[in-house]
Design brief:
There is one protein chain. With 137 residues, the chain is of the alpha/beta class. It has 4 helices and 5 strands, in the order βββαβαβαα. The chain has a 5-stranded mixed β-sheet. α1 packs across α2 and α3 crosses α4. It is globular and about 40 Å long. The protein starts with a strand and ends with a helix. 35% of the residues are buried.
């Protein structure tokens, strides 16, 4: 079974998919998400094509651990994804993943449009890596 990690965003949603053993991130991509229904359909298709058995959606908590309006949007998105795929969907604390993704891309000289198109996939990979590490423990 593979696990899909998702970094939901207004314009783009980052997607990362584990290997079959659920030990590493095997692939990462981005789907447009301005149209929520289309994004859900794209993610459901990707989950099916890649034989995903579980989905992890990043939950953007505030630094003090509270949840704001963005977290509510992500929870609603996760519910729609659960309905569309029939798969279990876990919410995962994503604090600082986008900041870490930007740092990683800076270290590898990704700037401008190249960075904008990649940062969400990197953030999804970080969400998935954190969840996979948690499962190992």
């Amino acid at each position: 079974m593979k696990i899909m990690g998702i970094d939901y965003g207004d314009a783009r949603t980052g997607v990362a998919i584990s290997d079959l053993l659920c030990t590493l991130v095997g692939s990462a991509t981005v789907v447009p998400s301005r149209n929520t229904e289309k994004a859900i359909a794209d993610l459901a298709r990707l989950a099916k094509e890649n034989q995903v058995g579980e989905i992890v959606v990043g939950l953007p908590k505030n630094m003090d651990g509270t949840e704001g309006p963005r977290a509510e949007l992500c929870r609603a998105f996760a519910d729609k994804l659960r309905e569309a795929t029939g798969l279990p969907v876990t919410m995962w604390d994503e604090r600082r993943t986008t900041v870490e993704a930007h740092n990683i891309l800076s270290q590898h000289n990704y700037h401008g449009k190249k960075r904008k198109e990649t940062v969400d996939a990197v953030a999804a990979s970080l969400i998935l890596e954190g969840y996979l590490a948690y499962r190992k423990r």
